[in-house]
Design a protein that fits this description.
The chain has 319 residues and is an alpha/beta fold. It is built from ten helices and twelve strands. The mean pLDDT is 92. Bound molecules: iron/sulfur cluster (SF4).
Length: 319
């Protein structure tokens, strides 16, 4: 499989206000030297606890924030794009947000919401606009009558369908879906996940799917990257990750997924909270919560170890 997005040595620091009169600048190191490839046509899941840097990575890949490093998209470094090249990149890559309630303008009809990106990108021919809108609204399970209505007239699931339609109207190659079902009722989540799977096949999309829900990711994704405190700690085919997880953090996440076959004793409970990225632990960032931590884990950052051609882990137990 060809690579569509190639992330190299990506770091992101956020300046924070210290709240004191001191002139000392403080930073959060939200992404710690990330290296990751996203293959053409795959759905790559990005999982981890809230605050681990998943959304920051999603925004970085789309150049919605300004990280340091390299993000090659189809061979060009996105972080260096300007003007028309950046506009072209924006057309090819889109984002779906978590909250379909706040991501749609309440004053615009669905027709106007879908027309706007086309006009911004220079498509003015009315027949073309109408034919694209007709095509995408039907693909996302809505109908032409819905185009006259406003976002508040729809349920949460339908609004997320509209948000997906808006993301796809420019025929992008790449989507970043940031927790796209976590604000929805469980019964609706499955419908949106099935829709995304169908659209990915039909439109040959590549998707970075960000989620804290391993049950969803297991069903949807081809490969999964596990993130902890700004680091990718494990990367694998979805099936291998669930059957044979290596990193202690991945073990804990998987053991927390509810299952009728699971006993209470199978669950690995993580002690403590996610440490602050302002002051991350030295060495392995997971060492303060890891049941297998050794002295060396506090002293040195583990290397990435190759388990197989498609399975990598960052932990001294495998070095
Ligand atoms: Fe645990 Fe050490 Fe592995 Fe980190 S490197 S996950 S602390 S065993």
């Amino acid at each position: 499989m060809q690579t569509l997005v190639d992330i190299k040595n990506l770091n992101m620091y956020y300046r924070i206000l210290s709240g004191s009169w001191s002139s000392k600048k403080e930073y959060i190191h939200a992404l710690n030297n990330i290296n990751l490839e996203i293959k053409k046509g795959e759905i790559l899941g990005l999982v981890g606890e809230s605050g681990c840097g998943k959304s920051t990575l999603g925004k970085a890949v789309l150049k919605l924030i300004e990280p340091q490093g390299i993000i090659n998209f189809d061979g060009r470094n996105v972080l260096e794009l300007k003007n028309q090249e950046l506009k072209d990149f924006r057309k090819k890559s889109q984002m779906i947000f978590q909250n379909p309630y706040s991501s749609l303008d309440p004053r615009m009809t669905i027709y106007k919401i879908l027309r706007e990106p086309l006009v911004v990108h220079g498509i003015r021919d009315k027949n073309e606009i109408n034919s694209r809108i007709h095509e995408i609204i039907n693909l996302t399970g809505l109908n032409d009558e819905d185009l006259k209505r406003y976002p508040h007239e729809f349920s949460g699931g339908q609004r997320q369908r509209i948000a997906i339609a808006r993301a796809l109207i420019l025929k992008p190659d790449f989507l970043v879906a940031d927790e796209p079902v976590s604000a929805l009722d469980v019964s609706i989540q499955a419908q949106i996940i099935t829709l995304l799977k169908h659209l990915k096949e039909k439109l040959n999309l590549t998707i970075l799917f960000i989620s804290h829900d391993l049950g969803v990711v297991k069903y949807l994704c081809d490969r999964i990257a596990v993130m902890y405190l700004g680091d990718i700690v494990e990367l694998s085919d979805a099936q291998a990750l669930f059957e044979n997880p290596k990193h202690p953090y991945t073990h804990a996440l998987i053991s927390a997924v509810p299952s009728i076959h699971k006993k209470e004793s199978d669950t690995i409970k993580l002690e403590g909270e996610l440490p602050s990225p302002k002051n991350p632990p030295s060495g392995c960032r997971f060492n303060t919560r890891c049941p297998y931590a050794q002295e060396v884990c506090k002293q040195k950052e583990p290397e990435i170890t190759k388990i197989s051609d498609s399975h990598y882990v960052r932990c001294v137990l495998y070095e």
